[in-house]
């Protein structure tokens, strides 16, 4: 997930670059707070981590020391909200690139109230560990000693050893996903990069918190979603994402719950149901629930295996494949309430946040238990920018999801209750087409008669050097090299390396040659031909179609 967090932060929307405001009521010592922020960074290596890309890999670089930016101003409490908002807006407009430190602070000091704003990437924390950051900042400010804890570096090393042991993770995912395809809600022809979850539909599932039939509600929810996808796609073999906290590994001497860092990950859930022409898979309600329960348990030792590695080494999917739908059960009960009012030295503190979103999937199925009842809020989050997912369609999906939850929960004899028969439709309801599906300008360039081979030498040399520098793999990588037998002037870079990190590298490379292009420009001009035409335009170099 770290790669996805960094990818989104490099786009114009600055997704997953989050701003947390500590609203402090009471006396605050600015100098002591500044030192506390510095000590916090010194204590946690993840906060000193920057990210660099080299040869189709994203590396974490932990700096030995880092003095984060700390801007301090006197500001009347009546103006602090507006000043902070303007600072955030200006900060988001600043150009960003790989390798830059991400953590940054703004302090607005007032007589009775003050505000501390912290810029933090989601690549540095997750929902399970954010409280460690706030607890430690308060403790350091108050002069208390912070105990030594395992670090995210320890977690990464342990996870790598666990995944590589006997090639267990790769073997498990290869076997699980053999013959599978991603069940797509939308039919993307290139990596989606503009959308954010801007729309929601929601309902409440009553008294479902504890689950039934010996299975948890998470299992019932994922079974219900699998049935929805089966109905929509007319397929008895579906794949979707399951968001896991990533803290289920058992590692000797490592208390994972005390680690500050983004342990969260999205892993595949594959569900097969018996139907016409399909003899494998679940036949009864009990079969389905047990299949999902057992698969989740079996995947726990391998839940830290990254999606990029999974696609590259365990499937024959397109390199830029992402999960089209993701199920998340979010139980942070007590953690969020604790941040609404807490002590910060002599002051009282309330936390608020501005968190620009970037959707890692077309649909997020989010289930959140209510703290004081057995009810669960179920929200479907989706992007409205493409216009492909209408509210009526999403209401229909939510209705079917709740109906499936009710059916699975209320069945008196799950081992005998047959699953609904899936009758294939002549035209499946998904995947839905996306308006303006491909942003790739290559086809238009070819249609206009241009070719990469006919580009001016200075342009062609620059583009060739960029592609060799960025996309040629390291010798030990089990990936295809830049072999001309399958790469041509019209091959999109994301068919070679599926990460949008490459787009950021292209933009940086050309910027160092005094050509101003954005990450989005590179996604829209993903081939050597399309990039050549864009560079020629920016450099005012004449080009002509082939005769």
From TrEMBL:
It comes from the Eukaryota. Gene3D superfamilies: Chloramphenicol acetyltransferase-like domain, Nonribosomal peptide synthetase, condensation domain. One of its GO terms (molecular function) is phosphopantetheine binding. Residues 20-421 form the Condensation domain. GO terms for biological process: amino acid activation for nonribosomal peptide biosynthetic process; secondary metabolite biosynthetic process. Keywords: Ligase. GO terms for cellular component: cytoplasm. PANTHER family: NONRIBOSOMAL PEPTIDE SYNTHASE ATNA-RELATED, NONRIBOSOMAL PEPTIDE SYNTHETASE. This is Condensation domain-containing protein. It comes from Clonostachys chloroleuca.
